Amino acid sequence: KNLANVRYKQFSQILNNIGENEGGIDKFSKGYESFGVHRCADGGLYCKEWAPGAEGVFLTGDFNGWNPFSYPYKKLDYGKWELYIPPKQNKSVLVPHGSKLKVVITSKSGEILYRISPWAKYVVREGANVNYDWLHWDPEHSYEFKHSRPKKPRSLRIYESHVGISSHEGKVASYKHFTCNVLPRIKDLGYNCIQLMAIMEHAYYASFGYQITSFFAASSRYGTPEELKELVDTAHSMGIIVLLDVVHSHASKNSADGLNMFDGTDSCYFHSGPRGTHDLWDSRLFAYSSWEVLRFLLSNIRWWLEEYRFDGFRFDGVTSMLYHHHGMGQGFSGDYSEYFGLQVDEDALTYLMLANHLVHTLYPDSITIAEDVSGMPALCSPISQGGGGFDYRLAMAIPDKWIQLLKEFKDEDWNMGDIVYTLTNRRYLEKCIAYAESHDQALVGDKTVAFWLMDAEMYTNMSVLSPFTPVIDRGIQLHKMIRLITHGLGGEGYLNFMGNEFGHPEWLDFPRKGNNESYHYARRQFHLTDDDLLRYKFLNNFDRDMNRLEERCGWLSAPQAYVSEKHEGNKIIAFERAGLLFIFNFHPSKSYTDYRVGTALPGKFKIVLDSDAAEYGGHQRLDHSTDFFSEAFEHNGRPYSLLVYIPSRVALILQNVDLPN
């Protein structure tokens, strides 16, 4: 509690300092309005940079024939530099839209460095060039948003997406392709939130968007900024909110087209020396205590909210930010000494509190999610209580548990208590996003759940014309069960990585030297679900109906489930949530007639979801017209119970039909 007070005090102190020195966080977070290069109302140009280690700063480009020194910036206090170029006599545009620019830095050691402004809004790689070019983005007509932001959903069902790999063709897909072809699928599947990866510009495609070079630029490899705005706007028109995967945990080491060595020193935006480098990621680490770094990062958050109308963020690499050891070589046991002590980077934590404060002050309906593997307490508690201010955290132990079970245990040795513990082990009032697998599990070197289950048979036996082999049967049944129990029991939100909902075969691998720059594994084969002769459609149908049922019944926004049974011998798990009765039989071969299951509710029950149904590739062993009546017969600590037939490898949801909906 004392530490929470200390953290809140540090946050308040910096917020007050911002108020006294900058006129408040509202003004402070609009750095992009003055920094960078801007066309003035009079037709002139105003430019501003922060380059504390520079000897001189100049602007050059197509507009002045690339003369490096004809437009020097004037030195201001605190390492800032500014330049005003008056308009031409004929009032024509000084720097036309799409023309190339560079900031020239002369360093203290006499070097002449060509740099891209950290505030650049559009950068492209042309032809066979190694580095990106900075293009002045000032279109005559910018995209006008037509739709308002949807209200914050009570339940979060997230479709984690990457624009570039969203087509089945061996190429980088576009914003336009995603808008026209993928958004309708996401809507149909019942997801109400998209988490967009790899949007902030990154020079290296195979970094999956995690080595950022230009923080204010939407990646040009998929299209223009205006086309990204159209994507977000179209999602909004469908009632889908869009979160940005924001990477403020580190930055690319590139200096020619990144932030590194911007002013000719190894510090500027980063810590100098070893503290400024992440050994595992080979990237630079921000100096979160620096005033101008705070301005840059908070303005970056605001830019994506205001310019592109994102509805919030998934913060990447929070564990690396929170600790000086960056989580490397650490197994977190949950002992409080691991979260409070000198190993915690309090400056980084304060930055995250400021970012959450800004996001929720500007747009109270926006959502922030923390990717933290350490389980830092109070990360999702309100800032006023000394918490981090996030809305949700990712339940990162759940996918690990499924992979461990699939890799190391026979089905008959799966421990029901262990599964339930992993799915329910979360702190009271800290909301979690549950997922069976995300992009992490799909990457080369690992395998998706579907591939762990069915492996090589996916190449030969996914056609409905081929035999329904034991491997494919097991794979299809467990794939659905794993998803439903994770969805129903694991959190207050649910996440799925694109394509995994239908058991996308193989893995993800971006074009790189090691695979001869191949796009073969950097694509998503959505057409597999449209083919009536393939079994992928069964998994797709189940995912859709599971999401739509959640939309109707709202179990994600209901209190945690009451688990009435986890029977090791029978391999049965039963729980109640949102007035629904969930029943899972993980036994590979045993079915149970007249199995007694406890419930809190009297009355008549009907099956509302059955993984064994024909449209989900099941064996149709249950009659959906059956009425189940609960009687006042206490069972497993519940006042009522009912008898139900539970076939092997089946997941069921029963709903009490006597209750008003």
TrEMBL record:
CDD domains per UniProt: AmyAc_bac_euk_BE (cd11321), E_set_GBE_euk_N (cd02854)
All copies of domain Glycosyl hydrolase family 13 catalytic, residue ranges: 181-527
EC number(s) recorded for this UniProt protein: 2.4.1.18
Assembly mode: Monomer.
Keyword annotations from UniProtKB, A to Z: Glycogen biosynthesis, Glycosyltransferase, Phosphoprotein, Transferase
Family in the record: Belongs to the glycosyl hydrolase 13 family. GlgB subfamily.
Enzyme class: transferase
Signal peptide (residue range): none
Function recorded in the entry: Glycogen-branching enzyme participates in the glycogen biosynthetic process along with glycogenin and glycogen synthase. Generates alpha-1,6-glucosidic branches from alpha-1,4-linked glucose chains, to increase solubility of the glycogen polymer.
GO MF terms held by the record: 1,4-alpha-glucan branching enzyme activity; cation binding; hydrolase activity, hydrolyzing O-glycosyl compounds
GO terms classed as biological process: glycogen biosynthetic process
Name used for this protein in its record: 1,4-alpha-glucan-branching enzyme
Pfam family, one: Alpha-amylase_C
Superkingdom, taxonomy of origin: Eukaryota
Reaction catalysed by this enzyme: Transfers a segment of a (1->4)-alpha-D-glucan chain to a primary hydroxy group in a similar glucan chain
Gene name for this UniProt entry: GBE1
Gene Ontology terms: cellular component: cytosol
Active site: D316 (nucleophile), E371 (proton donor)
Pathway(s) it belongs to: Glycan biosynthesis; glycogen biosynthesis
